[in-house]
Amino acid sequence: MTADSAGGESNEGILLDEPTTADLRAKVTEAWREFAAALATLVPTLMPGSHVDVTLDPTASGTGLAVYSVSIRILPDGEVEALAVGNAGLPEGYRMDRSAVADLVALGWSPPGVLPGSGDSFGLRSSQDQSTQLATVVSRTLRDVYGAPHPAFLVYLVHDEDDEPIDTAPLATARHEPSIDGDLDIGDLDDDGALSAALGAAAETVPLDERVRTVVATMSKTTVDQLQVDTDGDIGIRAGSAMVFVRVRDNPPLVDVFSPILTEVEPTEQLYVKLSELTNRMPIGRLYCAQDTVWASIPVFGRNFQATHLMLAVQVMTGLADELDDRLHGEFGGKRFFGEGDKPTPAKQPAAEDHRTGMYL
């Protein structure tokens, strides 16, 4: 896993010629800035022996047993030691390539074993009065090297030398690890608290499909019984001229948020190149062509299901699907889901200016 798939700074933006998606990219960038600022504020307040552990939740990345994490430990006299997972701590198939290792070294990490006591991890020494620089390195490591698409897909734990949890201010939109099995804190995504009240502490006792329907109903400001569910059990959400579906799979537990962007489109080399280019620029998810249909998909893992992950996936997908079907239809023809009168090779349509629902946060 490297930064190339994460939609970080190394990718110069997603669909930058569209104001709405430029705004989406700005929101993601700002979320990372807020996370770094919160971490920089936290580190100087901690006593010697305290730890801050930040991990990319496998729910976000589909990495299974691979745990991409950074641990910060406060030493005496204001010194700080940070450790970042190395390839020895990652299962085969999820290890970093030479480019990712080089990126870690360029950020200031020493290779495993160089820093005394670092073992198989990359190591870094800093100080509490240099917390801003340290927070920047940690943020870029999680985002650009480990591939975290957004701080909301991070979990963190702050604890003392006896492993007792320490209450601290939130690290922006990252999720406090002890709250995983407790009341759901979804911040700005749930302004009226409706979802927190609906799910409460019953996280693991309610079947996954019921939890998913509760989340989608809350986002749609409707009831579970009023959701649009087809014969396959897929929940349908209209997004302008596009349709987004939410499907729950059992083995492995997975929630697939997907959209048929275009149908009856001719697969060409130019189309495949375009889809690859757009996928590399997207903050999360992928685009692909199967037979004569262009699909967009964002998977959300069902193990340790978190409502915030599904909400972000749905909001990203509804915004991008409504935009991309217009853009790709204008360039490659085909039919949009709600594109009445679409023809195989129409003239390019102007960008729609109607309200978009896909900007997350």
UniProtKB/TrEMBL annotation:
Segments for region (Disordered):
337-361
**Residue ranges of the TY-Chap N-terminal domain?**
30-154
Q: Which residues form a coiled coil?
A: none
Where is each TY-Chap central domain found? 208-339
Q: Which InterPro entries match?
A: TY-Chap_M, TY-Chap_N
List, alphabetically, the Pfam families matched: TY-Chap1 (PF22551), TY-Chap3 (PF22552)
The protein in question is named YbjN domain-containing protein
Q: Could you tell me which species this protein originates from?
A: Paractinoplanes rishiriensis
